[in-house]
Write a structure and sequence with these properties.
By secondary structure, the chain is of the alpha+beta class. It is built from four helices and 13 strands. It comes from Paraburkholderia rhizosphaerae. Keywords: Hydrolase, Metal-binding, Metalloprotease, Protease, Zinc.
């Protein structure tokens, strides 16, 4: 086989799901395809996330002699701290009317999260170009945050294009000129986008401007 194809297939292998036993677990971070009786699935492993999603189904009733797979999500880190969402909301408010961004990163060895501001290249009230922040040791990206200035929080076509190769949570803070900003959050997994109907209540509380005493 061509060496380029061999390299590609090693980096993104295909596994036939056994019928009579569980499929072997992934041993390292990466992605693989699972061919199952009930369709084609992608399995993704990151230090903070284990995910299985169906990406294709069979159009004919061919007897596929493999086992079945169920979509699953397993968070391997603690819940993202609300105070870091609040800290980014303050960054967004300070940058308003311009957009800004930051990453929430996590270290498997220390189990600690932190907010890491991005290096802004250019930003306006409707766009943001940036360099990723420097990460320490084994830190990994968990949530990519950016703001929308005075505009409502939502995911644009540009966001979809930017996020389609990534595995991360994505957060948008909008209406940064208000005491109660809007929030949009979704899971991004290699072109799969799953937007939450509503962010956790603690995130809204953390993002709110405190009332003057």
């Amino acid at each position: 086989m061509n060496i380029l194809d061999t390299t590609l297939q090693r980096s993104f292998p295909t596994v036939m799901v056994p019928r009579n036993e569980a499929v072997a677990e992934m041993q390292a971070a990466g992605e693989r395809l699972l061919i199952a009786e009930n369709g084609v699935f992608i399995e993704i492993l990151r230090p903070w996330l284990s995910l299985v999603r169906q990406i294709a189904e069979f159009n004919v009733r061919t007897a596929v002699p493999y086992g079945r797979i169920t979509p699953s999500t397993r968070l391997l880190c603690e819940t993202i701290p609300a105070d870091l969402v609040g800290a980014f909301a303050r960054m967004a408010r300070d940058a308003h009317p311009m957009e800004t961004g930051a990453w929430i990163v996590w270290s498997p060895s220390t189990q600690a999260f932190r907010l890491a501001p991005v290096g802004i290249v250019t930003h306006t009230g409707g766009s943001l170009k940036y360099q990723p922040p420097a990460l320490a040791a084994d830190e990994v990206l968990v949530m990519d945050c950016h703001s929308h200035g005075r505009h409502p929080a939502h995911f644009s076509l540009t966001d979809n294009e930017d996020d389609r190769h990534d595995v991360k949570m994505s957060l948008v803070i909008g209406n940064c000129d208000r005491a109660n900003p809007s929030i949009a959050v979704r899971l991004c997994a290699k072109g799969i986008f799953e937007e939450m109907e509503r962010a956790p209540a603690t995130w809204y509380q953390a993002a709110r401007v405190p009332e003057a005493v």
